[in-house]
Fold this sequence. Notes:
Oligomer: single chain
Amino acid sequence: MRRYARTVVAFALATSVVTGTAGWVSGDAQQALTGPPPGTTSWRADRVLGAELPDPEHADPAEVAAFFDGLSERERQLLLVRHPSVVGNLDGAPLELRYRANSLSLATAEDPRYRSLAAPGRQILAFDPRGRGQVAEVFGDLRSARRVSVVVPGSDNDAGTFDRKVAAHGAPPGMARTLQKAAGPGTAVIAWAGYTTPVGVGIDAATGRLAEAGAGRLERFSRGLTADGLPEPAVFCHSYGSVVCGLAAHRLPATDLVVLGSPGMRADDVDALRTRATVWAAKDPTDWIDDVPSVRFAGLGHGTDPTDPAFGARRIPAEDAEGHAGYFAPGTDSLRAFAAIARGTSEVEGAAR
């Protein structure tokens, strides 16, 4: 009876897993945005170059990269103008072309939530206005960077909230911006809000359903970077974003997986992730995520705490991060460690095995 009672308590607590930065509020079930980018039907039917174009849904990013390598600048520009929504979100397409395509898409976007994304000088590597919207933005010179990082955020993040007025280091662009500044020259960081995240607290936050859909999108996005000739990234996964990274780990091209404020990665230990990346974990003692039970029961909860020594990740010092959204705060030990990883430094000060 006592064991049954503990299981019931664990079940109840698992339904309260909170994985974003918005606090303890009720959440609504979300429909994951999957499949090819908007405009794909017109793209598939276009024979402007005298042959079929690579299918955005089925073509491998390496095939997409090879296709664009064989085009003239005039042909690339023609496709950009005719299909900006596809080109801007086509993993494997040249990043310079994607910047221009997304700038064109944003210039014609009618939704006021996306107005700030169209500001001159922003490097928008992906933009999909459907649903709550998805977006990826680059900080630094991605083409010349020797080291690349990707920041994967948790709940309550989408294209509409991307530029919300929160702590400068709390929202995805703030995390990426402060990391790139701390990592310094030769690095670039991408803020990737490229999957449907949970909203508030609800069943979505406690299950892996949205993370499974996001894992496929993250894997394809990362393979698109390497297909375009960029280095394999270090991937920084915050909160529910670490669930996405855990499910993607076995097929994700990455040098490092860094999880922070994680409710679990849906794996019992590092070996279960089946990744060749170095796995790091950080958790501030004042982070409320520490109150989330490290359980998996009937599909709810995300399993072992990655900062548990038994999990086997390298522990990053984060005692001064102050809460769930403070890991990228300037001057913190966690940001210094993140910057060392982003630079590819072999040793991270204060890290523990």
